[in-house]
What we know:
By secondary structure, the protein is mostly beta strands. The chain has one domain (2-289): monomeric porin ompg (Porin, Beta Barrel). Helices cover 6% and strands 54% of the residues. The chain has one helix spanning 2-18; strands at residues 46-54, 64-73, 79-90, 93-107, 111-127, 144-160, 163-169, 177-179, 184-186, 191-198, 200-201, 206-217, 223-232, 236-243, 247-255, 260-269, 280-289. Strand 11 (200-201) and strand 12 (206-217) form a beta hairpin. The model is unreliable at 1-20 and 178-185 (pLDDT under 50).
Amino acid sequence: MKKLFILFFSILYLMPAKAQQDPMFSQYLYNMLAFNPAYAGSRDLLSSTLFYRNQWAGFEGAPVTVNGSVHSPFRNSRGSWGINLMNDRIGIQSQNMINFNYAYRIPGSRGNYSLGLSGGMYQFSYNYNDLQNGQQNDPLFQGNETHRLFNAGFGAYYQSSKMALGFSVPHLFTSNVFDQTVYRAVDPKNHMFFTGSYIIPLSNDYRFKPSAMLKYILHAPLQADLNATIIYKNTLYLGISYRTYQELSIMAQYQLNKNWWFGYAYDIPFGAVADVSRGSHELFLGFDISFDKSKMLSPRYF
């Protein structure tokens, strides 16, 4: 439990420098609705995913995130809807979120352009009873504390048969949450996400997909995820990713059938975390279904 106490305060004091308040996902291309509302309906069918991420495995109190989303276009409309749910735990802090998303698609000559808005609620909770710091009788370290914040976001997205580009700001507003344990305000920082991916045919069976995510957070260095994926028969996806804050990820996704698919990623840290962590594990399960029998399910490129 001592590690839990140390980890929690370490993360809090690192947050102004790292500003890593939104959970990270190595397989972000399959969880775009988590940070870009304009992605809603882009699959042109009912699409859902469930993510589980155990970051820094072996370190007590390290981040654990569960994220679920579902989205679909409205029938006979250019509009689309989406719902995103998340639970994120770091030490004694937990964060619950629900976001409702709306996107409007504009057909182009080679692809679709989308603009999206999201609105929802964040709940931040602190369970001070989990701290064992030698001050069990101190009322400062007892009980629970909960704060709720409204959230709104904006996104833009373009997708063709070979390319996808996205830009989003998941937090348009910021509100301070005062943490009494360290007498300081913790507020959701403005994040800006830029994403891009491209499909390069290599043969009838193989395709190559380079992709990248750039993350800009106010008062923090620019971060980047750089990915390279080989696709075999539109069924097996094998990839590698480098994250600029010293982490390498190895990942695989597999299309079980026309409806079900799953993925796994293992992150290998290079920095100080590597001394106390066995890496990070990320799993997801996806389900797609089309209620229009005349439509074919497209390969899962984006």
